[in-house]
C-alpha cells in the first residue's frame, strides 16, 4: 500500500509542478511578432516630444516627430537619423537588430561595430517579459530588450527598451554609461 501511495505521489508530481508553474508564469505572451504602431498613432513622451506613426517599411517603422523631421526605427529600437540628426545607417547595418525578432525571452544576438579606428562589441538580448506601468500608469505587458555595449578602451554602457505588444512601440527607454551619463524617455500618452 505504501509502495502504491509512493507511486501515486510520484506520478502526480509532474502534474502538480506544471500546475504551480502555470500559476506563477508571467501574464505576458511568450513571443512577440514584429509590427509597427497603427498609422496615425501618436506617442507623447515625458519630455513633451510627440511622434506619429506613418507606417511600415520592412523592419523599419516610419515615424514623424511633431514639429520636426521624419525618421525610421529599426526593429523598434534604433532610430535613423538619431535624435541628434546623425546618420546611424552603418551602426544599424552592423548590429542588425531585426535578428531579435520575433521577441522571445532568452533570445540573444551579438555584433561588432567599428568606426574611426575603434571597435565596440554588443550583446542584445530579451532577458524578460514584465508588467510595467504604461501611459496613465496602467500596468501593461512588455518585453525588455537590453543592449550591453563594450568599447575597445573599456567603456561600457547598457540600454533598455520596454516594448509593448499592444502598442507595438517602446513605452520606456533608459541607458547609462560607465562614465556616469544616463538618459531615459517614457511614453506618457498614446493617442489612436
Provide structural commentary.
By secondary structure, the chain is of the alpha+beta class. It has helices spanning 2-24, 89-95; strands at 31-32, 42-45, 50-57, 60-65, 70-74, 78-80, 103-104, 108-115, 118-133, 139-151, 156-164, 169-177, 182-191. The protein has one domain (34-191): YmcC-like fold. 16% of the residues lie in helices and 49% in strands. An eleven-stranded antiparallel sheet has the order 6-5-4-3-2-13-12-11-10-9-8, covered by helices on one side. Strands 1-7 form a two-stranded antiparallel ribbon. The radius of gyration is 21 Å and the shape is globular.
Radius of gyration: 21 Å
Total helices: the number is 2
Task: Indicate the proportion of strand residues.
Answer: over 45%
What's the average pLDDT? 88
Provide a quick synopsis of the model:
This protein has 192 residues and is an alpha+beta fold. The protein has helices spanning 2-24, 89-95, and strands at 31-32, 42-45, 50-57, 60-65, 70-74, 78-80, 103-104, 108-115, 118-133, 139-151, 156-164, 169-177, 182-191. It has one domain (34-191): YmcC-like fold (Beta Barrel).
Which descriptors would you attach to this protein?
two-stranded antiparallel sheet; disordered N terminus; globular; alpha+beta; 192 residues; 13 strands; 11-stranded antiparallel sheet; YmcC-like fold
Amino acid at each position: 500500500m505504501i509502495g502504491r501511495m509512493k507511486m501515486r505521489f510520484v506520478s502526480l508530481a509532474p502534474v502538480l509542478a506544471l500546475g504551480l508553474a502555470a500559476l506563477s508564469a508571467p501574464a505576458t505572451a511568450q513571443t512577440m511578432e514584429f509590427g509597427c504602431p497603427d498609422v496615425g498613432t501618436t506617442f507623447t513622451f515625458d519630455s513633451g516630444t510627440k511622434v506619429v506613426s506613418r507606417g511600415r517599411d520592412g523592419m523599419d517603422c516610419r515615424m514623424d516627430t511633431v514639429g520636426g523631421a521624419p525618421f525610421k526605427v529599426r526593429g523598434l529600437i534604433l532610430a535613423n537619423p538619431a535624435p541628434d540628426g546623425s546618420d546611424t545607417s552603418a551602426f544599424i547595418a552592423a548590429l542588425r537588430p531585426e535578428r531579435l525578432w520575433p521577441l522571445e525571452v532568452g533570445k540573444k544576438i551579438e555584433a561588432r561595430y567599428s568606426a574611426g579606428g575603434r571597435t565596440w562589441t554588443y550583446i542584445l538580448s530579451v532577458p524578460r517579459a514584465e508588467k510595467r506601468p504604461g501611459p496613465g500608469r496602467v500596468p501593461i505587458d512588455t518585453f525588455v530588450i537590453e543592449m550591453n555595449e563594450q568599447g575597445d578602451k573599456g567603456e561600457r554602457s547598457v540600454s533598455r527598451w520596454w516594448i509593448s505588444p499592444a502598442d507595438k512601440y517602446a513605452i520606456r527607454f533608459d541607458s547609462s554609461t560607465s562614465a556616469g551619463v544616463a538618459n531615459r524617455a517614457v511614453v506618457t500618452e498614446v493617442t489612436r
